[in-house]
Fold these 2 entries.
Entry 1:
Amino acid sequence: MDFTKGQTDRLLASFDHGSPDECWTWERSFDRGGYGKFRLTDDLGVRRTLIAHRAVYHVIVGPIPDGMHLDHLCRNRACVNPRHLQPVTLEENTRRGVEARTHCGKGHEFTPENTGYGTRTTRGKKYPNVRYCKACAKAAQLRHQERKRAA
Ligand SMILES: [Zn+2]
Ligand SMILES: [Zn+2]
């Protein structure tokens, strides 16, 4: 959708314009996920709540391609600086979120030595190049061997 001049002005007055490289912090309300919210009434008179960083990106950079999500390169959800936002597919965004974790579910650190990549099958779907914890993979292998020995 397109914003009216008044809506654009209000949107651009809703955050702290820092230097181009800094995070521009949203100063109005936030949703439960920590993302800024921008409320407006559209041309049809319907009240809508937009996600602030998407609205700012739309106004400053241009329309976000269909189906694309905006990934915060700075990992600061309150930030609406378009330079810190990159359109990515949902899959890519999810993958990056996982990659950003520094420890596996068992608490082993993902050091270069302890990180492997391989194909994982989840619910019949194959995902290539999935990161895994080598310590956990080794433990699983040991358990498997012990079970075999006990049998
Ligand atoms: Zn930022
Ligand atoms: Zn592990």
Entry 2:
Amino acid sequence: MQIDKLEWDHEVISEVLNDRDQELVWRIPLTTAGREDVWYWVKDSKGMFSVKSAYRHQQQAHGHINLNVSTDMWKRLWNLKVPPKVLNFLWRVSANCLPTRFLLALRHVQVDSLCPFCSAAPETALHVLVRCNFAKLCWQQAKVPIVAPSAMLFRSWFEEGLSKWNEVESIEAAMTLWALWKVRNDVVWNSISPSSEEVIHVAKMNYSDWCKAQQFLVPSPGTTTTELLRLASPGISDEQGPVVLPQNVLDLLLRLLVHVLLVESHQCLGDALTNGVDLRGVTSSLDTDPHVHAGETLSTQQ
Ligand SMILES: [Zn+2]
């Protein structure tokens, strides 16, 4: 192609390509607007690539989910005020990705496919989290209204629940589901005996711990987000904020500063200063520090 003229190079194309390919190249329209080419992601209205748009494209291309039907459900799910790990769990189970025994057996993993709570039915997500007698005991204690009694899939059940439960009930349901799966894992991997009281206790404790952590992180007037981030995770600092030095480096710098001041004072005042102040402790601690070459430091300062 002749870049300067924005047209095909007939000579090159005729020599290099066969007739069929030449024909295909001639059919490619060339712009006459004189603009430079830019990258454009066609799956986004603004042409900007995003993981979200790529994910939607993939899901639609493979027919995994009908996005039009379930948009409300996903919005309600992601808006739930519960710990991120619980949201992640709910997303996995709603997307049929939870590794239940039934799903593993379906994928040719050699496992017993029966429910670890009752051993009376295949362990599907709907069974182990909702329909199992043990799960029903937990739901009675959680006091979440019953929904979708004829649902055949967890996602249908959960979708109806999220559309009917109020905010508090939705949170209780989310935490109960997560706790049920946690206790189920304890039954499978640690051979504990399940108890519905334990499920409710785990659900409540986790939610209460998370709420306390959230209160700690709510900014009070005059407190910046950066400060809160540092409190939550020591070592995190934004690029424009002050540099946070480790304590041992600060100690070293402080001692060097004191030493330099004292040496300079000593030079200015002669013996007058040392008569009044005992310098032996400061000098000896610096000199005996294996990480500091006090002699070199002093010679450069002098
Ligand atoms: Zn069961």
